[in-house]
Design a protein that fits this description.
It is built from seven helices and 14 strands. By secondary structure, it is of the alpha+beta class. The chain has two domains: 140 residues, Fructose-1,6-Bisphosphatase, subunit A, domain 1 (Fructose-1,6-Bisphosphatase, Chain A, domain 1), CATH 3.30.540; 110 residues, D-Maltodextrin-Binding Protein, domain 2, CATH 3.40.190.80. α1 runs antiparallel to α2.
Length: 275
C-alpha cells in the first residue's frame, strides 16, 4: 500500500468532480436521454450515470492503482468496506431528477480510509453548489464554512423526507409519517436526492432528514459533511449508523434527532426493497 496523501487525493477529486459536473450540465437539458430500468420502473440509469462513474474510476485508478471502489453502477453486491482507501461513488444522485431535467441532481463521492470518512464532496453543477468536507477541517459550500442550524424542537423544524417508492409497506410508512409530522413542524421538503437532502441539513437550510431505502453511496459523502458541519447522523431508530442498513437519520442536533425518533413510524427495508 502506498503512502496515504489526503491532500493529493482531495485535489485530484475536485478536478474530476468539476469534469463530471460539466458532463451532467451538457446532458441535463436533453429530452432524448438514453435510459435503462434497473430494479424497477422508477429506478433508472442513464448513459451519463455510466460515463461519470467511468470518468471517476478510470482516472482515480490510474493515479492510485491500489485504491478500491464501491460505486453504484458497477456495484457487485458485496457489502464490504475494508481498511484500504475506498472511494464510494454515486455518479448522479437524483437520476430521476436528471431524467426530467429537474435541477436537483449531483455527483456524490467520499473517500474512506480504515473505514473512516476522510473526504466528502457533493456537487450539484446545475445550481453550482459544491459541498465539501475533510475530516477535522469543517464543511463548506462553495468554499464558505457551513454549520447546521442547531435547532432542537420539532416545532422549529423544516424536515426533509422523500415521498417516492413502489414498495407498498414503505409507501404506508411514508404516508403515516407525513400525517404524524405535519401538525408538529414548519413543513416537509423533498429534493429527490439523498445527498442533497443531507447537504441542506448540513448548511442549516433544514433541520433533519430521514429515509429507509438508501444505499451506502447515497449517504457516504453526506455523512462527513453533516458531522463536520456540527450535525448528527445515526440510525432512524437511534443508535449508531449502520452504513449498509439502508437507513439514515441526520439532524441539526442530538435533541432534534431524538424528537424525531420518538415520533416517526419505522420501516426496515430488505435487500430487494426498491426506492
Amino acid at each position: 500500500m502506498s503512502e496515504i496523501n489526503l491532500d493529493l487525493y482531495y485535489d485530484v477529486l475536485l478536478n474530476l468532480v468539476m469534469q463530471a459536473g460539466k458532463m451532467i450540465n451538457e446532458n441535463i437539458s436533453s429530452r432524448n436521454k438514453e435510459i435503462e430500468c434497473k430494479s424497477s420502473t422508477t429506478d433508472f440509469v442513464t448513459k451519463t450515470d455510466k460515463a461519470v462513474e467511468k470518468l471517476l474510476i478510470d482516472n482515480i485508478s490510474k493515479q492510485f492503482p491500489d485504491h478500491k471502489f464501491i460505486a453504484e453502477e458497477s456495484y457487485s453486491g458485496e457489502k464490504i468496506l475494508t481498511d484500504d482507501p475506498t472511494w464510494i461513488i454515486d455518479p448522479i444522485d437524483g437520476t430521476m431528477n436528471f431524467v426530467h431535467s429537474f435541477p436537483h441532481s449531483c455527483v456524490s463521492i467520499a473517500l474512506f480510509v480504515n473505514k473512516i470518512p476522510e473526504i466528502g464532496v457533493i456537487y450539484n453543477p446545475t445550481l453550482e453548489q459544491l459541498f465539501t468536507a475533510r475530516r477535522g477541517r469543517g464543511a463548506f459550500l462553495n468554499g464558505r464554512p457551513i454549520r447546521v442550524s442547531g435547532k432542537k424542537e420539532l416545532s422549529e423544524a423544516l424536515i426533509m423526507m422523500e415521498v417516492g417508492g413502489r414498495d407498498p409497506e414503505k409507501r404506508r410508512v411514508v404516508d403515516e409519517n407525513q400525517k404524524i409530522l405535519m401538525p408538529q413542524i414548519h413543513g416537509l421538503r423533498s429534493l429527490g436526492s439523498a445527498a442533497l437532502n443531507m447537504a441542506m441539513v448540513a448548511c442549516g437550510a433544514a433541520e433533519a432528514y430521514f429515509d429507509f431505502a438508501l444505499q451506502i453511496w447515497d449517504i457516504a459523502a453526506g455523512e462527513l459533511i453533516i458531522t463536520e458541519a456540527g450535525g448528527v447522523i445515526m440510525d432512524p431508530a437511534g443508535g449508531e449508523l449502520q452504513r449498509f442498513s439502508r437507513r439514515v437519520l441526520v439532524a441539526s442536533s442530538k435533541e432534534m434527532a431524538e424528537n424525531l425518533i420518538r415520533n416517526i413510524v419505522h420501516f426496515y427495508p430488505t435487500s430487494s426493497t426498491t426506492y
